[in-house]
Specification:
By secondary structure, this protein is α+β, with helices and mostly antiparallel strands. Helices cover about 30% and strands about 30% of the residues. The protein has helices spanning about 80-85, 90-95, 95-105, 115-130, 230-255, 260-275, 285-295; strands at about 1-10, 25-35, 40-45, 60-65, 65-75, 135-145, 150-155, 160-165, 170-180, 185-195, 205-210, 220. Mean pLDDT is about 80; it is low at about 20-25, about 240-245 and about 250-260.
Length: about 300
């Protein structure tokens, strides 16, 4: 049985490194409605450049009614990332809306749909609209829709205390969502992109940029205007507190009513927090951020 599935979450294949081989795979989560209601299915994605998905994308899958917990992706129908960016795939051109769509389909409350992050992007756009630009350039805000990054080995090989890590400080393929105030956002595939500033949330950080007025593929990230680590952390802490307050207010407002499955919301929030923490290398900053997540009611387990 074939059906259209909504991608909820998907691993991104990093470039380079000995751990990325033909047999490598990563987690993939999709939502499918076969007529009896929506259901989330967990599977594996083959880690290769051709098999690269993003949340909010719709794909064709095949399911076995006898084994509803299994599915296969019709990879032949999945366009390349470059092709999808050129076609301005909505999941790439507007990743904020794509993730809102995913959250809505999961039945999450407003407090769990990235409201604070959406507001951060909106503030950045409003600021860009008031700033001047050099002749022939336009002020813009760029979001990283997806980025492969590069795999590297970290640790002491002599003591066998090594582990794989993905870095975005080296060139890798990425797709940028370019937002020029007053215009529709568009997707731009970049073969060689790297973050010149360490970002706590690469996929949610609004990046100030300049775009050529005559060539929209000519995009320059203004890394010198990107807030430093401490400012990013404080912004994240404020967002965590606001989310916690919003959740508490909604619990009061909807007391006695049926709410979305809280275990599902907790699991998704914890997964998002763990992904963000992997980019934080400073131990003190990592502990502070972890404490804030836990204060917001996000259970990270004992290995955070």
């Amino acid at each position: 049985m074939t059906a259209t599935a909504l991608v909820i979450d998907a691993a991104v294949p990093p470039e380079g490194g000995p751990s990325l081989g033909p047999g490598s795979n990563g987690p993939l989560r999709v939502m499918v409605d076969l007529g009896s209601g929506r259901r989330v299915h967990d599977g594996k994605i083959r880690m290769s450049e051709a098999h690269w998905l993003v949340p909010g994308m719709e794909i064709r899958v095949t399911l076995d009614p006898k084994h509803p917990d299994r599915f296969e992706v019709d990879w032949d129908s999945v366009p390349s990332m470059e092709t999808r960016a050129a076609a301005n795939d909505p999941a790439l051109a507007d990743p904020v809306a794509a993730r809102r769509k995913v959250a809505h389909e999961l039945g999450l409350t407003q407090a769990d749909t990235g409201t604070a992050r959406s507001e951060r992007v909106q503030r950045a756009l409003e600021q860009a609209a008031t700033q001047s630009a050099p002749p022939g350039k336009l002020r813009a805000v760029v979001l990283i829709s997806t980025i492969r990054g590069r795999r590297r080995i970290v640790g002491d090989s002599e003591n066998a205390a090594t582990h794989d890590q993905v870095t975005y400080a080296r060139d890798s393929a990425a797709v940028l969502a370019v937002n020029v105030p007053g215009r529709a956002p568009y997707a731009l595939h970049v073969r060689r992109f790297k973050c010149a500033v360490d970002l706590l949330e690469p996929l949610w950080m609004p990046l100030p940029a300049l775009v050529s007025a005559v060539d929209r593929t000519d995009v320059e990230i203004l890394w010198n205007e990107v807030p430093g680590h401490e400012a990013q952390l404080m912004d994240r802490v404020a967002g965590s507190r606001a989310a916690a307050d919003a959740r508490a207010a909604q619990v009061d407002a909807f007391a006695g009513q049926v709410l979305p499955d809280p275990s599902q919301m907790q699991r998704l929030a914890a997964e998002s927090a763990r992904r963000a923490l992997q980019y934080v290398q400073d131990p003190a900053m990592r502990k502070m951020l972890t404490d804030q997540y836990r204060a917001a009611g996000i259970d990270l387990g004992d290995d955070a």
